[in-house]
Design a protein that fits this description.
Distance between the termini of chain A: 37 Å
Strand content of chain A: over 45%
Shape of chain A: globular
Helix content of chain A: under 10%
Order of helices and strands of chain A: EEEEEEEEE
Radius of gyration of chain A: 13 Å
Structural class of chain B: mainly beta
Largest sheet of chain A: 6 strands, mixed
Radius of gyration of chain B: 13 Å
Largest interface: A-B, 23 and 23 residues
Oligomer: heterodimer
Strand content of chain B: over 45%
Helix content of chain B: under 10%
C-alpha cells in the first residue's frame, strides 16, 4: 500500500490563488485526481490525469505535477470554492485518497 | 442523465452482514468499471473496492479483504457490496461511483451516488 499526504487546511482571501499540495512516492509515476466535497454532498471530480479538467469544471481549477508532488490551484478563489479537497491516485490494483484538505475562503 | 442511487444501509450489530445496492441509469452500465468508496463520520474518503465491466476482476482495500464482496448485474444495471463480519470501524457513508471520465478508466470519476449510511453498533 502507499500513502498520499495533504495539509489539513489552507486558507485564502477571495480573489487570491489557493494551492493545495499532495505528496507521495506513487505520484512520480502515476497520475493524480482531485475531488471537491462540500458538506453533506457527494464528491465532485475537478481534476484528472494531473491537469485535465472534466467538462463543467470552471477554468480557475488547474493541476500540476512535479516529481512526487501534485498541486491543485484555484486561481481567483471564490467563497463557493470553500470545501474539502482530496487527492487520489492508483498504482497496481491499489487505490488511495489523501487525507483531505479543508479550504477556507474568507 | 446519469444517476446512481444507493440503498441497503442501516444499523447492524458487530459481526453481522449487510448488502448494499446501487441502481444505475442514464449510461451503458456494462461499459464502465464501478467502485465503492466510503467515508466514516467526520473523516476522509476511503476507496473500498472496484469491479471490471464484465465482473471478471475485482479489487479491495486490505481492511475489507475476505469480508466484503463487490459484484454487479449488468442485466439489471446494478452494483452490489456484500458485507460480512462487520466491525464498528466499518461505520460510514458508502458511495457507489462510476469510473471515468472515459470508459477505459478504472478510477472513480464524475458520477457518484448520494451515499447510504451503514452503522455498525451493538
Amino acid at each position: 500500500s502507499y500513502e498520499l499526504t495533504q495539509p489539513s487546511s489552507v486558507s485564502v482571501s477571495p480573489g487570491q490563488t489557493a494551492r493545495i499540495t499532495c505528496s507521495g512516492d506513487v505520484l512520480a509515476k502515476k497520475y493524480a485526481r482531485w475531488f471537491q466535497q462540500k458538506p453533506g454532498q457527494a464528491p465532485v471530480l475537478v481534476i484528472y490525469k494531473d491537469n485535465e479538467r472534466p467538462s463543467g469544471i470552471p477554468e480557475r481549477f488547474s493541476g500540476s505535477s512535479s516529481g512526487t508532488t501534485v498541486t491543485l490551484s484555484i486561481s481567483g478563489a471564490q467563497v463557493e470554492d470553500e470545501a474539502d479537497y482530496y487527492c487520489y491516485s492508483a498504482a497496481d490494483n491499489n487505490r488511495v485518497f489523501g487525507g483531505g484538505t479543508k479550504l477556507t475562503v474568507l | 442523465e446519469v444517476q446512481l442511487v444507493e440503498s441497503g444501509g442501516g444499523l447492524v450489530q458487530p459481526g453481522g452482514s449487510l448488502r448494499l445496492s446501487c441502481a444505475a441509469s442514464g449510461f451503458t452500465f456494462s461499459s464502465y468499471w464501478m467502485s465503492w468508496v466510503r467515508q466514516a463520520p467526520g473523516k476522509g474518503l476511503e476507496w473500498v473496492a472496484n469491479i471490471k465491466q464484465d465482473g471478471s476482476e475485482e479489487y479491495y482495500v486490505d481492511s475489507v479483504k475476505g469480508r466484503f464482496t463487490i459484484s454487479r448485474d449488468n442485466g439489471k444495471n446494478s452494483l452490489f457490496l456484500h458485507m460480512n463480519s462487520l466491525r464498528v470501524e466499518d461505520t460510514a457513508v458508502y458511495y457507489c461511483a462510476r469510473a471515468g471520465p472515459s470508459a477505459g478508466d478504472k478510477s472513480p470519476g464524475t458520477y457518484w451516488g448520494q451515499g447510504t449510511l451503514v452503522t455498525v453498533s451493538s
